[in-house]
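Here's what a typical entry looks like (DUF4193 domain-containing protein):
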Amino acid sequence: MATDYDAPRKTEEDTDSIEAIKERVPAKPTTGADEDADNPGSFDLSAADLTDVELETIVLPLQEDEFTCVSCFLVKHRLQFDHESSLGPVCKECS
């Protein structure tokens, strides 16, 4: 039997009036529950001038048990090694 997927499927009881929909929506949305604590919407530095601040980062050389994947260019532990291509080592995630 053929089914017309373009035909509307709503019945009389499925159609709600705008007033009925407004009654179901809460008056005030809850705040705090939907807020992401790790990613705040606004971050205020109190107009601090950070131009004179030097950032220091310690860069370690490649260790003996590490390799750089030629596909994703990330430094991986040797346990993540999958195979050696013609260009160099490839990790398990990229193979």
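The beta strands are 66-68, 75-77, 81-84, 89-91.

More examples are in the samples folder.
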